[in-house]
Design goal:
Layout: H1 2-25, E1 33-34, H2 36-45, E2 50-56, H3 61-68, H4 74-83, E3 84-90, E4 97-99, E5 102-104, H5 117-122, E6 131-135, E7 141-146, H6 151-162, H7 171-181
Helix pairs in contact: 4-6
Length: 182
Amino acid sequence: MMTKISAIILTLFISFSVVAQKKADNKPATIKWYSLEDAFKLNKEFPKKKIFVDVYTDWCGWCKKMDATTFSDSTVIEYMNANFYSVKLNAEQKDSLIIDGKLFVNPNPTANRSTHQIAEMLLNNRMSYPSYVFMDEMGRPITIVPGFLEVATFIPIIHYFGDNEYFKKSWEVYQKEFGSKK
């Protein structure tokens, strides 16, 4: 009897040790964020994914909340990593960017809240943070979605574009169908 109990305790101890070791070795999953330049390069080499651009600023509270909640959700992380080259783009960054041979700059990099040309272009001069730009596999803009989004709101949106449902049906129809799948 004591031998069976000892064997069970030993087995449980080993199991917990293995699980604890795995947790210690694995870093928490996060969205794989690329620079815009790298996303375009990857998109040209491996055009199997769309490009997703999170346009944010350092001072934006809703941008930080999006990072802490929605972009930290495991379902969102898994889907984004599988279907998008995801980009974090600071709309007020100081560095110049070269995209497809074209130079984009911040026209006044020493000023506070000076907007970068690439952010203005991606958002069609509708500067609202956070905003998300969905681009197809060729790097062409599909749409812009502004504002903080809860996980439950964000998931159908990324599926709508990531699964090419936007070719097949309107957002209103898709949203109703997606909600009924739950």
